[in-house]
Design a protein that fits this description.
By secondary structure, this protein is an all-beta fold. The protein is built from no helices and eleven strands.
Amino acid sequence: QVQLVESGGGLVQAGGSLRLSCAASGRTFSSSAMGWFRQAPGKGREFVAAISRSVGRTYYADSVKGRFTISRDNAKNTVYLQMNRLVPEDTAVYYCAAKDGAAMSVAMAGYDYWGQGTQVTVSS
């Protein structure tokens, strides 16, 4: 079992930056690939970024590539999402997710554990 708690969301102006954190507890964090998803009002949850278990391979949605960076600190059991050059379309609740195994996944069904989410609002 893995418990995930996101933090770092808030209100920011377009062009600004935020860093989201996701603290994990429970089973060994380093054995899990991690991902970030988001859900905008009235829309389904969509993939944002993922990072592999140990080697640190990453993968991004086209909409955030070049602006967002996912990273992890296994010593702190934490995964981060650095978000730069934010635009209003990035407004959403951001969710952290963990999956058993090393491989990344872009699909919600590939993840076993989810956090409660943190709100990010980008004003124009």
